[in-house]
Amino acid sequence: MDQGPSVDSPWPVGLLAAKIQGYIDRLGSVWVEGEITSWGLSGGNVYGKLKDVTGDATVSFTVWSSVRARTPADLKQGDRVVALVKPNYWVKGGTLTMQVIDMRHVGLGDLLERLERLRAQLGREGLFEQSRKRPLPFLPHCIGLITGKDSDAEKDVLRNAQLRWPAVRFRVLHAAVQGNRVVDEVTAAVRELDRDPEVDVIVIARGGGDFQNLLGFSDEGLVRAVSACATPVVSAIGHEADRPLLDEVADLRASTPTDAAKRVVPDVTEELARVRQARARLGTRLSTFLRTEVDRIEQLRTRPVLATSAWIVDSRAEELGRYIARGAELVTRGLDEAAIGTKELSAQLRALSPQRTLDRGYAIAQLHDGSVLRAAADAPRGTALALRLASGTIGAVSDGPTATPR
Predict the structure, then answer these.
(1) Cβ neighbours of residue 11 under 8 Å, at least 6 residues apart?
(2) Which member of 101, 260, 357, 392 lies 3.0 to 4.6 Å from 236 by CB, making a disulfide possible if both were Cys?
């Protein structure tokens, strides 16, 4: 029984290579889908690499000249394709490559179907709702721009924005806008600019392109990253016929990079004209208001009540005289009535006064403490008395009570 290779009985390299080749040959041919990231022509044959469209995986492939004659002539780097490949292990070099039997572009209908399914899913999640879209600032102090390096889109945005408002500032991040690096680089740039507190708005600009070249801007990861931004995002991919999902989730869609610059940055000339117009309108309204008020004051001044003030006294003088005469009459009558009443009260007081009694010959006997003597028993013999007469007071000593004559 074969125990397999060991330290004492190792396999030759050729045997190992032959066994690997046998294993791989048994895999047969398979259809795979991916993006061409390398496409080199040598001696009529094509040597390239195929990358997974969603994951980080790459395989090398070879298209022999005989097969290349049957494949589309416009195949190139960046294309998304499906290929019938057969794994081929080269024993002499110890390398594995995929021998292409057939290769063709991914059907446009398939791509559209996948894109519409993703569009519907994100729509159900509410990522495209108008209520989620943030308003752009009236005058952004700093604009974050994501675009290809030295691209026409970059030049258009910078030139038009600075023509409209020379003081505007930009923070430009260059990223791939076509090919397999679009999603990763644009997503990273979006997140970096969103973290910058000085950036007021983010513009993603590209100078247009065909449907397949724009697929990266419909990637689910990029779309969700834009949706999660706290900073407003403007999509300026520069196309009209196709709408990648970035257009749907962005806070504003601009038809071109130039349009983006015009919609993000106000025109200083137009704004100054608006200020002048507003000042003119304000001056006109203020002048009209003042003229109206002056006319109103003039009308008030021509009225009799303000033309001469003497008429007020003249028209009220007679009435005022009557009031004065009436008041004097009432005061005199009141004083006369009060004098009569006073005399009557004075007469009553005098009639009831003890002095009148004294005047008639009576006297008031008072004890030493000033109290009035009212009973003979209160003045026993020897009690000192003061007799108050009508005029003056005399002293007396009591002889004691005596019988009252009948």
Answers:
(1) 5, 19
(2) 260
